[in-house]
Design goal:
five-stranded antiparallel β-sheet; globular; Alpha-Beta Plaits; alpha+beta
Length: 128
């Protein structure tokens, strides 16, 4: 059997990456009962940390996340969190119910492992 008669064997390997991105990004909006109430970026971050602490204790309060962008007028923020902490952050935001004795709710507008995905929303696309 000559070298030419041998067929090269190719080994195919299927690779599936779950949560390949180290971070997830959330676009959230805080809706307050009193629409005139404004929070600074520092107050917003402390409010989120308080929610994490009340739901998950000291371990939850130690969750690392960043406020990348914040609009004080619309109370809209872009948050970055390690992918492994996404569920904890999202659940604590969902369960926040009051801020300084007034009803509130976080609306999670968009979530993506890619920051660029938060720059646009196909639901708001206007075609002329």
């Amino acid at each position: 059997m000559s070298h030419d008669d041998k067929k090269e064997e190719f080994v195919y390997q299927r690779v599936v990456l779950k949560n390949a991105s180290p971070y997830h990004y959330l676009k959230v909006c805080l809706v307050l009962e009193d629409e005139t109430t404004r929070l600074s970026a520092v107050e917003l971050k402390q409010f989120i940390i308080t929610g994490l602490h009340s739901l998950y204790g000291e371990v939850g309060a130690a969750l690392t996340f960043d406020v990348l962008k914040y609009n004080e007028n619309s109370l809209t923020a872009h948050l970055r969190v390690h992918s492994r902490g996404l569920v904890k952050l999202w659940s604590s935001l969902t369960l926040q119910g009051s801020y300084q004795d007034q009803a509130c709710a976080f609306r999670v507008l968009q979530v993506s492992p890619f920051l660029l995905a938060l720059t646009g929303n196909s639901r708001d696309l206007q075609l002329n």
